[in-house]
Amino acid sequence: MGFAQVGAESGWRTANTKSIQESAEAEGVDLKFTDAQGKQENQIQAIRSYIQQKVDVIAFSPVVETGFDAVLQEAKAANIPVILTDRAVDVEDTSLYVTFLGSDFVLEGEKAGEWLVENAKDADVDGDGTINVVQLEGTTGAAPAIDRAEGFASKIGADDTIKVTASQTGDFTRDGGKQVMESFLQSDDSIDVVFSHNDDMGLGAIEAIEAAGLEPGKDIQIITIDAVKDGMQALADGKINFIVECNPLLGPQLMDLAAKVLDGEEVPERVVTEETTFTQEQAKEALPDRQY
Ligand code: AHR
């Protein structure tokens, strides 16, 4: 199997890489692994090299949604099946990949929005009747950034006191989240809520909020997505208010799907991972057993 990973931008990604590498080893799969360092061109180059090496199957987690048509056509012409993991691609011809294993990112954004609508009163710390939300977006053009923003917007629309006042990419990294949050805080002193597309950017935002002399989780509420250990710890400590889970442990299902594809078995076009959500109390209970 040739696997072209996005990079190492977050705790989620580190857990995802470990899951894929460990599952490959457990199943006796000869895994060729590349890290695209967040660059689509590196990922395309890696996929081309897997085609040249004539691997049996290619799997990858696309950095962004668009721009993969040509290289996927090359894989198809070489009769090498492609499995998408974690993130989708936006291609006209969906026969260019056999199956897509990963989360429903729209649903994740919806869960975050629903929680805010249900808890909006508590978020209005200054009591001015409006909930001003700033959004820390994932990598521009990446499926989780597009879909989570869409899902969140669709749910907060139910409450016209909730407004997204600023939205900018922090590229799914802790540093990116910190820098964007610093600039939001400099230009706006009425922020009630941060909606961060992943835990790492939320953790960066916590640093910026504390440096500004404010209390994260109280003066400004924080909603994130992922539920990696560091995020769950911050949730249990009261610095994050709600986390929507995104499961990175895709390795076992990926190896299983690949084996079926290579045995000529039918596989579903879409395999959605099961996920939950965590409140502060639930995080305290779940933390001791959290694997990643
Ligand atoms: O594609 C999944 C997303 O990518 C995770 O939510 C984020 O942490 C990662 O970088």
Structure description:
- There is one protein chain.
- By secondary structure, this protein is an alpha/beta fold.
- It is 43% helix and 18% strand.
- It is built from ten helices and twelve strands.
- The protein has helices at residues 11-26, 40-52, 69-77, 105-123, 143-156, 174-187, 199-211, 229-236, 251-262, 280-286, and strands at residues 2-5, 32-35, 58-60, 82-85, 99-102, 131-137, 162-169, 193-196, 221-226, 242-245, 270-272, 277-278.
- It has a six-stranded parallel sheet, with helices on both faces. It has a six-stranded mixed sheet with strand order 7-6-8-9-10-12, with helices on both faces.
- Helix 3 links the parallel strand 3 (58-60) and strand 4 (82-85).
- It is elongated and about 60 Å long.
Lateral strand order in the biggest sheet? 2-1-3-4-5-11
**Could you give the count of β-strands?**
12
Order of SSEs: EHEHEHEEHEHEHEHEHEHEEH
Profile the largest sheet.
Answer: 6 strands, parallel
Evaluate the radius of gyration.
20 Å
Bound molecules: alpha-L-arabinofuranose
Q: How much helical structure, as a percent, in the residues?
A: 40-55%
Alpha-carbon distance between the two ends: 24 Å
- Specify the number of helices: 10
Q: If you average the pLDDT, what whole number results?
A: 97
Please state roughly what percent of the residues sit in beta strands, choosing from under 5%, 5-15%, 15-25%, 25-35%, 35-45% or over 45%. 15-25%
Gross morphology: elongated
Q: Which class best fits the helix and strand makeup? A: alpha/beta
Q: Report low-confidence residues grouped into runs of 5 or more.
A: none
